[in-house]
Structures are given as structure tokens and as C-alpha cells.
Amino acid sequence: MPRDSTATREQLLLAGEHLFARKGVDGALTREIIARAGQSNDSAVGYHFGSRRGLLGAILDRHMARIEQRQPPGPPPDDLPALVDDLTRPVSEELRTADGRDFLRIIVQLAGSAGMRTHDLPNPLRGSAVAGQLQALERECVKTLPEPVALERLSLLISMLTVCLADRARRIDEAQLVLLDHDDFVANLVAMLTAALTAPVRRTLNHPDT
């Protein structure tokens, strides 16, 4: 790809990240992305990414590639707290960069489509180390929980993780108060997520009619 084309593609990626994070993956307009990227050609997104959805996919792919590079070596552990830690720390590193924080503010919008309840993980999760960690978490959870409860908790874990990271990303970007430094924040988040997975099951009480 010619150098100027590569530069344009990068500008569109950065512009897409910024606007998808702040205006929403459905709210950001293609013309706004093109304008923020400093482009005058209305077909720039289509030329480089095929479509607006293609741009979103390229953003997700490049950040998932960074997260994959941070994964600990070896197979997933068979210990629940260690698994939650392995899942949380690599993605939490995205908090350290501006484009990483944009990514975290984007994925929270997509958390409901993670597919844990149906065992149908979407790209770019499919085949990733993150997918392997989620599968390992499911194996550990079903040892002590009914499968429907385990899947529900894992779905909620994804929502909790992405909401917490997106909120901190936004607070950092807007120079708002954060109470913990990065390492303490991540350690506290891991502890909270682990506690959510291991909480006792509360049975539904059937009250007699009165």
C-alpha cells in the first residue's frame, strides 16, 4: 500500500475510534469520521475499509491483536481467580493510551453481543486467547453452578468488565477523579469479578397464594 494511502487509513482509524467512542457506533456519522480524518473524499471509508462496519471491524481487530500480544504464555490455568486475572489484565492495559481508551469505550457498546449465552462468540473473539479464557471460565463455573447460571454469570461478567473499563477510560479522558492507581484498580476489579462468579446461588422462593 502506498505510504500516503497507509497514512490515510491510519487517520481514518483514529477518527473512527474517537467518534465511535463518543457518539456511539451507530451515532457517529461517516461524514464526521471523514472530516475528522482530514479527508475530502466522501468515499474514503468505503475505499479503505469497504464500509462503515468494515472500519469498526478494523478498529476491533487491531486492538484485539494488541491484547493477544499481552497474553500470558501457556494454556489457561484451572483456577478461577487466576483465570479472571488473565482475562482482565491484558485488556486493562488499553487504559494506558488514548486510542486504547477509545477502544474500551467502543467495546462496552458491543458487550451484549458477546455470545456467551449461546456459545457463539463473534469475531474478533472467535479463536482468540480471550475466547479460550472464557471457555476455561465456563468449565470452572459449571463445576459448582448449574450451566444456565454459569452462562448468565459469564455474560454479566463481560458486561461488568467492559462497563468498569469504559467508565475509567472516560474519566481519564475527561480529567475526572479516579480513586485508585492503575494497578490497584485492576486488582480491585479482578477481586470484584471473581466474587461475582463465586457468589452463592439464591434459590427462588415460591410463596403460597394468600
Automatic annotation (TrEMBL):
InterPro entries: Homeodomain-like_sf, HTH-type_TetR-like_transc_reg, HTH_TetR
Any Pfam family hit: TetR_N
Annotated keywords: DNA-binding
PROSITE patterns xref list: HTH_TETR_2
GO MF: DNA-binding transcription factor activity; transcription cis-regulatory region binding
Domain of life according to the entry: Bacteria
Gene3D superfamilies per record: Tetracycline Repressor, domain 2
Positions in coiled-coil regions: none
DNA-binding residue intervals: 30-49
Protein name from the UniProt record: TetR family transcriptional regulator
Domain HTH tetR-type span(s) in chain numbering: 6-67
